[in-house]
Specification:
The protein has 622 residues and is α/β, with parallel strands linked by helices. It is built from 23 helices and 19 strands.
């Protein structure tokens, strides 16, 4: 009997896709002892949004999380992380020495497999990571990002003649770019570079069942290494496409455990188990141990209610080892298997949807399907827009995503491009609501993407659009020699200690400076809490002077965020377009520039301040 290896995504991609990466270390510590003997081939526990989110939202150390997982598993399952190749876990390209330092530290702390992808499928951006992981004793997993060709809808195109420029053809007959051969060739290049696993990474769940069968079959024929299939259930294809991948020889399948499966996440292993039995394939996992994890996961999910879009309509409990399916559901399982073997996609999807409906998993999300976005991107956009108190913009922003994606060179939507395109779509929606032209507000990362600093996009960006966004029609790749290592300052107010106290903290500061700075500052401040408290108690109370009324022209925040740096001071004369300050919104950096020649009168914010939409930032002299 053929065995199917499983990569469990529950502790990383599962919680990221469904609960905006808010699973705390406290909840993970309850789960880890149950995982030890579950027999998963690989457990994805790190990377992706985890290093950023655990600091940003949970005030926890990413390194402590990796070490805790490694200690608990005792080498019984391989631990994996997701790396964005040249971008690692951050949002900009890094020099080779930064890649080497981070990979070395990660492997030393228990990481085994690094799944390496590039959001643009630019092989130049992954080759150094594959080499380094292999040299440092890890397992390089090369991931090809799945995406689809644009819909032919000339009425929705932002610029006249888009398809003519893009393909040299009329809209009704564009050349197909993202063919099976496109993905196979990318996979072969990664294998040639030394990848020991090749993953078809379908981050948006857009691989329909027949396409899964076609691509997986071709990958198996073209490659000598294991083939892994990673997908999501958001648009309704996930379970059916997973079944087709099994039928066509996939070696490893990515799944989540029940309460963290389905919806915008990967399929639940319990449903995959049902189908594998029918297909005479053995799931190489201890399903009794999975049952114990499942029980504890219900409590973990309840702890995430604030971020759970389906907390009031969770799936009904199910144990595939003990619970007997109703006759009508068993019949649907049989219909699905027959349809899969016959290549009848419509019947397969109908049966799978009926099964998912019976168990109470979310229905296919048509909005996400049309906008072609990954589940993690969707859940993060929801969480971020709630924080901005701009929930009403979600539908508009989602509909703008295809336009922004086309303008940016048809990039696949996976971090960081999903964040860049998603946040830019929100900015365009805000521009439109305020009666401004599209792209009036732009993130620095979007400018860098269009400029060419993230690498070569699947299709060339229109020169006129590039000039509109960047000021130049020329493509300009990222110059790694211009990389500036973030400073590790001494904190005089905390006794002169360094902000980053060791190598792993220095690496966090290099990769995620905007998040690591407040996180590490808090760690240093805690160490001196008693001294600071005593000093404050001894200070005399001084009444604040009344605030002078605002009389001059002002600059306000276009959207809510956190101030990163202030570049001007009172009394300074500025020119139009002078960068007054930089602030972060939706994980993207944004410049706030002067709209006139003037003299700065007052600055209302300082680095670290959190500001709301339309908050006063700078006042000029009359």
């Amino acid at each position: 009997m053929r065995k199917l290896k499983i990569r469990d995504l529950t502790l990383r991609d599962g919680q990221q896709s469904l609960f905006a990466t808010r699973l705390s270390q406290k909840e993970i510590d309850k789960l880890l002892p149950l995982y030890e003997n579950a027999g998963f081939y690989i457990m994805e526990v790190w990377g992706g949004a985890v290093p950023d989110s655990v600091m940003r939202y949970l005030d926890e150390s990413p390194w402590d999380r990796l070490r805790a997982c490694s200690k608990a598993m005792k080498g019984k399952s391989l631990l994996s992380a997701l790396s964005r190749g040249r971008n690692l876990f951050g949002y900009k390209p890094y020099p080779d020495y930064v890649l080497e330092g981070f990979y070395k530290e990660a492997i030393a702390n228990g990481l085994n497999v690094m799944r390496i992808f590039d959001a643009l499928n630019d092989i130049d951006n992954v080759k150094e990571s594959i080499r380094l992981i292999n040299e440092l004793g890890g397992i390089a997993d090369g991931a090809v990002c799945y995406t689809v060709d644009p819909k032919v809808d000339p009425a929705s195109l932002p610029q006249p003649g888009f398809f003519a420029r893009l393909f040299g053809k009329k809209p009704e007959e564009p050349e197909k770019i993202f063919t099976d051969e496109y993905f196979v060739e990318k996979a072969k290049e990664m294998e040639a570079l030394g990848a020991k696993i090749i993953t078809l990474k379908d981050m948006a769940g857009l691989v329909n069942p027949l396409r899964a069968a076609s691509i997986i079959s071709k990958l198996k024929s073209a490659l000598s290494v294991d083939v892994d299939f990673h997908t999501h259930c958001t648009p309704g294809y996930g379970l059916a496409s997973g079944i087709m991948a099994i039928l066509h020889g996939v070696d490893i399948l990515d799944t989540n455990i029940w309460w963290f499966g389905g919806g915008s996440a990967a399929p639940a292993i319990e449903l995959i188990y049902l189908f594998a039995k029918k297909l005479d394939v053995e799931i190489d996992v201890n399903m009794e141990a999975v049952g114990a994890i499942r029980e504890q996961l219900l409590e973990a999910r309840r702890s995430l209610a604030a971020f759970d879009l389906n907390k009031d309509k969770m799936p009904r409990p199910f144990d595939p080892l003990k619970d007997k399916l109703p006759a009508e559901v068993e019949a649907q399982v049989d219909k699905a298997v027959e349809a899969a073997k016959a290549g009848d996609e419509e019947a397969l999807l109908a049966a799978c949807h009926a099964i998912e409906q019976y168990f109470g998993f979310p229905k296919p999300n048509e909005l996400v399907k049309e906008a072609e976005v990954p589940g993690g991107m969707y859940s993060n956009m929801v969480a971020q827009l709630k924080a901005l108190k701009a929930d009403d913009l979600l539908d508009d922003a989602m509909r703008l995503i295809p336009m922004v994606r086309r303008d940016a060179g048809l990039v696949p939507l996976v971090t960081p491009t999903s964040q860049i395109v998603g946040s830019q779509a929100v900015m365009v929606a805000i521009d439109r609501r305020n009666g401004k032209p599209d792209y009036t507000t732009k993130s620095n990362e979007f400018i860098s993407l269009v400029k060419g600093e993230y690498g070569h996009t699947p299709v060339a960006i229109d020169a006129a659009f590039r000039e509109k966004i960047t000021g130049s029609p020329e493509e300009k790749p990222y110059d790694v020699s211009s990389y500036k290592k973030p400073e590790n300052p001494e904190l005089a107010e905390l006794g002169g200690v360094k902000l980053a106290g060791n190598r792993e903290e220095e690496l966090l500061l290099e990769l995620l400076p905007n998040v690591a700075k407040p996180y590490l500052t808090k760690r240093r401040a805690e160490a001196h809490e008693a001294t600071v408290a005593a000093a404050k108690a001894a200070e005399p109370v001084v009444e604040e002077a009344p605030q002078e009324p605002v009389t001059g022209p002002t600059i306000s925040a276009p959207m809510g965020g956190r101030v990163i740096e202030v570049n001007v001071q009172p009394g300074q004369k500025v020119d139009k377009k002078t960068v007054l300050l930089v602030y972060e919104a939706m994980k993207m950096e944004n410049d706030v520039t002067a709209d006139r020649e003037a003299t700065v009168k007052r600055i209302f914010v300082k680095p670290g301040d959190v500001v709301g939409t339309d908050a006063l930032l700078v006042e000029f002299e009359d």
